[in-house]
Known about the structure:
The structure is a homotetramer.
Chain A: H1 5-36, H2 39-46, H3 50-56, H4 60-78, H5 87-104, H6 107-117, H7 125-148, H8 154-178, H9 184-208
Chain C binds a DNA duplex through helix 1 and helix 3.
Amino acid sequence: MSTDPKTRKRRVNGEESRRKILDAAASVASERGYDGTSIALVSKACGLPASSIYWHFKDKDDLIAAVIERSFGTWLAAVNVPDGDSPRERIAEMSMQIASALLETPDFLRLGLMLALEKRPEEVRARTMFLSVRDEANRRIAATMRDFAPELSEHAVKLLTTYAISAADGLFVAKEIGGDDVDLISLFELHAHLVYDAALRLAAQSAAR
Amino acid sequence: MSTDPKTRKRRVNGEESRRKILDAAASVASERGYDGTSIALVSKACGLPASSIYWHFKDKDDLIAAVIERSFGTWLAAVNVPDGDSPRERIAEMSMQIASALLETPDFLRLGLMLALEKRPEEVRARTMFLSVRDEANRRIAATMRDFAPELSEHAVKLLTTYAISAADGLFVAKEIGGDDVDLISLFELHAHLVYDAALRLAAQSAAR
Amino acid sequence: MSTDPKTRKRRVNGEESRRKILDAAASVASERGYDGTSIALVSKACGLPASSIYWHFKDKDDLIAAVIERSFGTWLAAVNVPDGDSPRERIAEMSMQIASALLETPDFLRLGLMLALEKRPEEVRARTMFLSVRDEANRRIAATMRDFAPELSEHAVKLLTTYAISAADGLFVAKEIGGDDVDLISLFELHAHLVYDAALRLAAQSAAR
Amino acid sequence: MSTDPKTRKRRVNGEESRRKILDAAASVASERGYDGTSIALVSKACGLPASSIYWHFKDKDDLIAAVIERSFGTWLAAVNVPDGDSPRERIAEMSMQIASALLETPDFLRLGLMLALEKRPEEVRARTMFLSVRDEANRRIAATMRDFAPELSEHAVKLLTTYAISAADGLFVAKEIGGDDVDLISLFELHAHLVYDAALRLAAQSAAR
DNA sequence: AATGAATGAGGATTCATTCAT
DNA sequence: AATGAATGAATCCTCATTCAT
């Protein structure tokens, strides 16, 4: 940390502006989606004129892709595979981590799902960014799954992984819609339980063959 | 009701125009969401001038709400609770019906979820329409659930219902994203299975208390 | 001419607006070129809001192409090949017609030349329009030339035609630059004379071979 | 003049930057005209940030005027009045020089003509620069003309000079439009021939009076 | 029941330019 | 001598909506 106030003030200004813009864009976009996020709105929210946004980002697409990217970063940092403990406990622990990360920084998934559902002709970079980030998550979960139950066939791994992620998405959506009426923690607990049991059963079937 | 052929002709034409507009709006909106759906786009897609759209619908909001409403109608018609058979088979059967209805007419849920995720200040009628339609679905499923396992506590019913619907949403989203890579039928089969088992277990717990 | 004022007022309004826009665009564009012609400027000049311009024309390019097209029409109407008289007199007569048409409606050529000189990457429709219109003029003059001196080789016809048109362009530019200092009529007289003599000489050479 | 190597280094670098900017501006401006030449485009083409351009040039106008000035310099250097030989040969020789200078460095005239055709309210310095440069050319040619045929009336000198320059402009434009289809050399040969004959005839007429 | 035309507000983006370093 | 960042005005164009017919 530099102690020279002048250097810090000036040098960092560019990056600070960039950060302010990203913050503003994240909050606007996660509330109103891609189309609903106008540059004017972001400009108002961050205090910088619209033209300044274009100094930091090529275009709206670039801006929102950056929002997704950063948002995924913070999100990932909050989730880390625990080791030790029994498989059941590890899975429950991860499940809790994901649930609370979703409660704390929902921007990533909310905006991502909005983009994912849209199928406009011209592929939006932001959408691609979300999908690739999601693919990465997919691979990690599949790896954990194989690790934990090596007998599972590849087909079963894929089925379970897709189910695990999809249902989590759905629960998140329910929470977004239902607000405090929805007990996300309990739902994720149930979810972890069900997926764990399903994995055991499928592993047993595979082994039997 | 007038028998004057001219009047009838007009009315029939009017209804056909209305239908054409709804068709166009449904296809555009399910691809691009609320904001991405411009009247000009709908006009181009249905061949009628923009001003004609305003003869049939009060405003854009009204149009999209109508799309949701009609879309839900067709959708509901495809799903009907089967009777007879064992509970397990009935649940599996319903599950299949829902999965194939989603494959055939995905507009309803795709557009609905898009709207649900958006949180704009001015409540959009279309969104409200979707949410109320979804509440109705919720009630029906809860009723079925109580019917099938009366021992379940109200809390358990709510948890299971929410989980059942949410995961279905998530699976639908996965299918939308993944396309043919995703085997929606198998996923719903697994889903029905898991929810059924969970219901049994929770019912047993409730009974034990 | 309809005598019903209401019909005329309303029915024609669309076309009248279109005309007003074209008039305004012609005057602005011929003064400031393609880039200098902003829709806002045209809007101010014609009294209609910018968005109305887009009702009548697809985009700026379309608008300016239409200006060129119409402008060429009026221009062509003012020039018609005279018959009777000796070749020399006919050429002199045509030459005068062209000169005075240029003096009266210079928009066409001024804007056209501006566009022709620009070589931007994305071909502008307006430019293409001018070039095709110019090709047509080229063909007509070449035909007249062949008609009048059949002995001329094709090569000579092309050389003379190009020279005739090009020098006329140049004289027009000089007049645009120099204003009243430049006696366009005398210059065209001289030009006609020189081209005529050149044609005679080249025809004689061709015949001699 | 300082001998301090640092200062010299800077100055040399500075002049090289200036040159790079001018090169970039010349290429952009000769392709897209005054309005089409944005500082951002020039910046991209020369690799220096926009703000650096403003260190070397007061504003856009200044930059483009400098382009014209330098461009005219290189151009002039390529054309030098030959002495000795007969008048006819001297004119033919000059004509060839001009034609090949136009083929090699067309930027000057292309940009100049674009500017000349525009008539915007606020006089652009770059345009004035071109016009004054052109006036100078005019004077030189008139002087040559008087020198070569002293009997010519001032009126005839002016007419011939204007015609000579204008037609040359026109031929240049034709070459710009037509590309390789247009044989600029032959056209200039013809042009020189015609002007020469016209001068002879007018001189004879003047003498006769 | 339908439509051609119009319109003000707002969309994304680029403009020429400035300023502190 | 150079530059990263900022900025207000302007760019083209689309928006949802209205209105007279």
